[in-house]
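Inputs:
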Amino acid sequence: AQSVAQPEDQVNVAEGNPLTVKCTYSVSGNPYLFWYVQYPNRGLQFLLKYITGDNLVKGSYGFEAEFNKSQTSFHLKKPSALVSDSALYFCAVRDPNRDDKIIFGKGTRLHILP
Amino acid sequence: IAGITQAPTSQILAAGRRMTLRCTQDMRHNAMYWYRQDLGLGLRLIHYSNTAGTTGKGEVPDGYSVSRANTDDFPLTLASAVPSQTSVYFCASSARGFDPYNEQFFGPGTRLTVL
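Outputs:
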């Protein structure tokens, strides 16, 4: 069965430092991978996705993610964190060999410390 | 362009009552979804619809029903609400038909409390 794991409930990073939010997945075929961000009292917003091609994917707000097939990971990264990046981040996976539903991780709360 | 709207924004409901959460999108997206978000559990899919006239069950469909009479609207009904249905409900849509690549767009959510 397809699944996605975000091993950290919370990540704290000082402003200006690089940040990483971890995500690992399990699917039977080649995965479609997504990152979403949720600000307080708002719905989720799409950040970036990996379908095929370059393993490094660039998205909104300066975020990027690296697809690593051997480690079945899709970690979200940003070179220099901003306080405004503080939010809840969700990784999601779709297995194109099974059905068309996306499975979301449980979310990682990112705190950027001024 | 409003995107996706949900109503009501929040609701307190007595157990046993019937409730319909409304969702409307103006993007002409084929697919629509209902999720519930609970602390520590992330987002869980309740029901989905790939196109008008079709619906499917997600991960946690029990106690919920949906209909998709047209492209724009995708209401979620709780026939007889129970306290375990207290949650934040998000509607989403995506421009997929048989194309799985497209990201989902989310509404602002409905906070439902069942007492």
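Remarks. The radius of gyration of chain B is 13 Å. The mean pLDDT of chain B is 92.
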